[in-house]
User: Fold this.
Amino acid sequence: MYYVEDGTKRCGLYTCKECGMRFLDVKIAPRISCPYCGEEAFDMEIGPDDEMPEPTENAILEEVIEGEENVERYDALLSLAITGGNYDWI
Ligand SMILES: [Zn+2]
Assistant:
């Protein structure tokens, strides 16, 4: 598994409207921060006692993937897309 842990039975399929990246996350929310471009927002001075700032939530939930097999399939296909494999799953 590339995006989520082995045995994950439910996760969200997200598309980032900033960088266009598609990815899975076990967190299910209408919008989450993109792990690829959202983190830049965290480069400000943040002390250990400070509260986390509101992240930029660029990634939009497209679909909730349910079932271990489905999660595994999406995970494999999306990671293949990144590593240059076949992208013929739609
Ligand atoms: Zn992004």
